[in-house]
């Protein structure tokens, strides 16, 4: 069995070797405790197995109930069995999970920031009571059905349609790249109607629902993404999310997920850096550790600087989110910058590892491959660039 070796796990109580600015001084005791608890879970449950899970394209459903017990599912939501933690704590947890693997952090995001968040924000009291406690406990997995084969960055062009038939709704259409759909008990599906775009709570045992995992993949292999087909899926009138109409519904959930990515990407970058740093101290060439060479030290310094800046940006964004002052373009700054920098850090870490860096014993190449997916979902680099371009100029350039 392939296992990840290289850098030993960071002490649960200590800072990362990448920390050049005493970052932990900016965190409360409660925030540090949350980070430590999730880091321990990753060290014990994910690190020893992730190389094999990635190789086998296996998502460890056996960990879902444990994540529920830890309060990681719908972590930032209040009530209905959810933990009600702060945005900063949710971010710190996301960074630790993605230091294990993007696929595991993505599960928590799809479950909590997308599916549960949609029901929590826009659902009826009956929908909340039926699904949120079970999803928070990890007893039910959820999915979020927005993207389609021909509607990715332009969700307004979606073709999935829900028509009224008496008191029922009948859904027809296709969705693509839908995380966890083949494992889920329920999903939130967005569809065109005669009254605009609406969301629907869809139990996956409804006749006409079909989810097919997309395979093979070269990224996010320890996760599941699916094609979804909806063929005359009949739902009661009560299945519609009653409290939102239009794209502001799914976008409000996407912004929750995008926020988590700010932190997660830096977790993957930090993990790659720490492994490369440890390796550089042990790898002897020309009679001494390669960590003693100027070019290697420059690589390590450059990576550490970007990790420190990325975590500061994530923390500032989280503090604004907790204070209620966060704006949409703030999230785009973090998502665009931190994912882009994280990919470069992982690639640079691989160069320090040399040929050994392409083996599963080291995480950098796996993280880099995963981050190519993270770079694309929840808004591509191009979309976030245009959001920021409009913020700077006042001129939309989407069309």
From TrEMBL:
Residues 246-392 form the Acyl-CoA dehydrogenase/oxidase C-terminal domain. This is glutaryl-CoA dehydrogenase (ETF). InterPro entries: Acyl-CoA_DH_CS, Acyl-CoA_Oxase/DH_mid-dom, Acyl-CoA_Oxase/DH_mid-dom_sf, AcylCo_DH-like_C, AcylCo_DH/oxidase_C, AcylCoA_DH/ox_N, AcylCoA_DH/ox_N_sf, AcylCoA_DH/oxidase_NM_dom_sf. Coiled coil: none annotated. The keyword Flavoprotein applies. Residues 28-139 form the Acyl-CoA dehydrogenase/oxidase N-terminal domain. Belongs to the acyl-CoA dehydrogenase family. It is an enzyme of class 1 (oxidoreductase). The keyword Ribonucleoprotein does not apply. Pathway: Amino-acid metabolism; tryptophan metabolism; Amino-acid metabolism; lysine degradation. GO terms for biological process: fatty acid beta-oxidation using acyl-CoA dehydrogenase; fatty-acyl-CoA biosynthetic process. One of its GO terms (molecular function) is fatty-acyl-CoA binding.
